[in-house]
Specification:
- The protein is built from 8 helices and 10 strands.
- The chain has helices at about 70-80, 100-105, 125-130, 145, 150-160, 180-190, 215-225, 240; strands spanning about 5-15, 25-30, 50-55, 60-65, 85-90, 115-120, 135-140, 165-175, 200, 230-235.
- Helix 2 runs parallel beside helix 3 and helix 6 (about 180-190) runs parallel beside helix 7 (about 215-225).
- By secondary structure, it is of the alpha/beta class.
- It starts with 6 loop residues before the first strand and ends with a helix.
- A hairpin with a 7-residue loop joins strand 3 (about 50-55) and strand 4 (about 60-65).
Length: about 240
């Protein structure tokens, strides 16, 4: 039986975060997430909705009914990337909460590479989906920033589940960042694989204004992470500056 999934929106744009910034992506944003991170920039995707928005051009998006089949989702990707030049980004919400649906979609995407953006706390589902993705971008949840509690044990299990896949760790930082906590996250990543890029992402203020964090804070966060990992970068959300989706 075909598994149906809940999506929030599908659109084509450019990757605005992390080490693959600037590359062309078709974003398949799933609907529903068990976490409630304080800085979440996609609150409309936190719950399952009756419809999914499909952005086909510059005007208002079309609305299609949820839940959708893998074939429907793959057809929208094809419509937005007929030359098969874009990555397919599974984002959310939390995509791994719908792993079975995404696994059924994967063979329908042709030669396109798949980029998974996840909170990095669903180790079991990551293991089930490992053969379906080419790149994993996972958030490390600092309780001092996200207010989601201590997630280090879940992150550790997640790192085991996605071994062998190209991946990137991302940490959102703001003026409340506990620097010792951040360093412990960098140490955790290094214990799994010191080659994983570690991206410090300043929290983007509401309405997309430029982050304004003290240079001393950013320098210290970088220095602490660099004690454990050789590839540490400071990269903001570039799509917010360009006013792109």
């Amino acid at each position: 039986m075909t598994t149906r999934g809940y999506l929030q929106e599908v659109f084509a744009s450019f990757q605005g975060e992390g080490t693959r910034v600037g590359e062309r992506h078709v974003f398949v944003r799933t609907a529903g997430c068990s976490l409630r991170c304080r800085y979440c920039d996609t609150p409309l995707a936190l719950v399952r909705t009756e419809s999914v928005r499909v952005h086909r051009g510059a005007g208002e998006p079309d609305r299609e009914l949820n839940p959708v089949t893998p074939d429907q989702a793959a057809a929208w990707v094809e419509e937005l990337d007929r030359e098969q030049q874009a990555w397919v980004s599974w984002t959310g919400g939390e995509p791994l909460e719908q792993a079975e649906f995404l696994a059924e979609m994967r063979p329908l995407l042709g030669a396109r590479r798949v980029y998974l953006e996840t909170a990095g706390v669903n180790a079991l589902e990551m293991g089930q989906l490992a053969s379906c993705v080419d790149f994993v971008s996972f958030d490390l949840k600092l309780d001092s920033v996200s207010k989601e509690g201590d997630r280090r044990a879940e992150h550790r299990e997640f790192l085991r589940a996605c071994q062998g896949i190209e991946r990137m760790a991302k940490v959102v930082v703001n003026e409340h960042t506990d620097r010792d906590e951040l360093e412990s996250m960098a140490r955790l990543v290094a214990e799994s694989d010191s080659a994983i890029p570690f991206v410090l992402q300043p929290e983007t203020p509401r309405r997309g204004r430029a982050p304004r964090l003290p240079q001393e804070l950013l320098e210290d966060c970088f220095r602490r992470a660099r004690r454990h990992l050789p590839n540490v970068r400071l990269i903001p959300q570039t799509h917010r500056f360009l006013e792109l989706p």
